[in-house]
Amino acid sequence: MRLYHPSAFDFTTAVPSYWEATAPAFDHEAPPLQGAHTADVAIIGGGYAGLHAALVLAREHGLKVKVLEAGHVGWGASGRNGGFCCPGAVKLSYGELISRFGLDETKHFYKVQRDAVYFVGDFLAAEGIDAQRTGNGQMEVAHKPSRVEELKAEQRFMRETFGDDSAFYTREELAERGFDSLAFHAGLLSTETFGLHPLRYVRGLARVAVDAGVELHARSEVTGWRTAGGLHTLVTREGEVSARHVLIATNGYTDETLPAAVGGRLLPALTRIIVTRPISDNELKAQGWTSTDPTYDTRRLLHYFRLLPDNRMLFGGRGGTDASSDAMNRIIGTLRQTFEEVFPAWKHVETEYSWGGFVCLTSSRAPFAGPVPGMENVWGAFGWHGNGVAMASYAANRLAGVIAGAVAHDKALPAVLQGMPGRFIMPSQRVNYLKAAYVGYGLQDKWR
Ligand SMILES: Cc1cc2nc3c(=O)[nH]c(=O)nc-3n(C[C@H](O)[C@H](O)[C@H](O)COP(=O)(O)OP(=O)(O)OC[C@H]3O[C@@H](n4cnc5c(N)ncnc54)[C@H](O)[C@@H]3O)c2cc1C
């Protein structure tokens, strides 16, 4: 059971994304699961989280690992995101983190977020995965004059608390650096983010995992789960796997009943992306936007955008609460309108691709990687709050050592990721909570 329109869970069809149109096909074996099998660890979900955990379990711990993926390799968010490899897998402010976890743990989490970005960069380089890395830092731009002081205050706080090395730019300085838009009034550049081709990344990762001995099964949706005698048996249409350990790595695509212990704790949320045709050098100059640094604005319902290596502009934002295709078309229209307000010189530059997908929020507003309470040897890794390229990769890599029994949970991961999120109050109303939040945030973005 899932919270949204079933068309968003058609595992047989790829989204019509720019990434699907430009990534090389996955050239390794990933046959659907057929017949009855055993494994040490069975993993549900073949995105960054599932595959990174699988790789460590097989390569470093010599375990027999089966990954069951409902779609093709890269079907989920890992194959369709904006490609910002960045910190931010949490919806708690640093002030809230400090009061909930203390200053030392918050400092630890701050460091881990940066480490996660470096981890992906190092992984791509070490494994020879050409994920078309671009940009050198992430720009946060003030969408209202009133947000300029907030950016300055944020910079001061981050520098004093964590020794952060971000740089502040006025509107004029932004224009000089190739971020020219009258829609923005100042910017804060943090150093560690970069952009990548998400589907090239996840397919490269899948190749490395299969080469390391991971048994990867695409088109193998888990539809049943039995537990007996310390073994969990996951059932797909044509087969089943019995394993002592199970890792749930389905994030925004999680089935509410698989297992029931996870139901009611996650809140998938839609986000949408458009990609234009390639923009010529003259057109780029006419707008004055030439930087490839991933950029997002200060709205609560933020827009994120970046110039791709072939000079197309990727522009993303909130995707509403209706996953039907009619609603999708309406949202894409709104996104396009905002794109034209931000980049008026590109009003004539056509959109060539548009698609959407689910990110995953939690009741605790923090991500989770650890044991699922009340279920023996069942693990979860999810809740990346729309910023999982780096954190899903890193956290799953670390969690694998815990699953293998090689490292303690509290040594592997910071406290922020250790607590299983609780159930939402009246979980059946989750999407309505989101609707209400969108109305409130939209008003804040407009008037503050
Ligand atoms: C449009 C969009 C833009 C985004 N932009 C960014 C960005 O720029 N930067 C960033 O850091 N993050 C971004 N994100 C979020 C990021 O993509 C995710 O946090 C990350 O990919 C999560 O990885 P994952 O492995 O946890 O989940 P996923 O990649 O979603 O993988 C989960 C997999 O589980 C599979 N699955 C579900 N149910 C079953 C089942 N029953 N049986 C078998 N398999 C199942 C699904 O098919 C899916 O492939 C974006 C997400 C979207 C949708």
Can you describe this structure in just a few lines?
With 448 residues, the protein is α/β, with parallel strands linked by helices.
Structural commentary:
There is one protein chain. With 448 residues, this protein is of the alpha/beta class. It has a domain at 6-81 and 199-266 and 363-428: FAD/NAD(P)-binding domain (3-Layer(bba) Sandwich), CATH 3.50.50.60. The protein is built from 12 helices and 18 strands. The chain has helices spanning 18-22, 48-59, 94-101, 103-127, 146-162, 171-176, 198-211, 281-287, 325-342, 388-403, 409-412, 430-447, and strands at 35-44, 65-68, 84-85, 138-141, 167-170, 186-190, 194-195, 215-217, 224-228, 231-235, 239-248, 266-276, 295-297, 304-307, 313-318, 351-362, 368-371, 378-382. Strands 1, 2, 8, 9, 10, 11, 17 and 18 form an 8-stranded mixed β-sheet that branches. Helix 4 (103-127) packs across helix 10 (388-403). The model has no long low-confidence stretch (mean pLDDT 96). The structure holds flavin-adenine dinucleotide. Flavin-adenine dinucleotide binds at residues 11, 44-50, 68-71, 75-78, 80-84, 86, 221-222, 249-253, 255, 258, 271, 273, 316, 356-359, 382, 384, 386-390, 392.
Main attributes of the structure:
8-stranded mixed sheet, 448 residues, 33% helix, binds flavin-adenine dinucleotide, single chain, alpha/beta, FAD/NAD(P)-binding domain
Mean pLDDT: 96
Low-pLDDT segments, ≥5 res: none
Heterogens: flavin-adenine dinucleotide
Strand content: 15-25%
CATH superfamily of the domain at 6-81 and 199-266 and 363-428: FAD/NAD(P)-binding domain
Number of strands: 18
CATH topology title of the domain at 6-81 and 199-266 and 363-428 = FAD/NAD(P)-binding domain
Radius of gyration: 21 Å
Main beta sheet strand tally, sense and closure: 8 strands, mixed
Structural class comes to alpha/beta
Helix content: 25-40%
Task: Give the H and E element order.
Answer: HEHEEHHEHEHEEHEEEEEHEEEHEEEHHH
CATH architecture annotation name of the domain at 6-81 and 199-266 and 363-428: 3-Layer(bba) Sandwich
Overall geometric form: globular
Q: Class of the domain at 6-81 and 199-266 and 363-428, according to the CATH hierarchy?
A: Alpha Beta
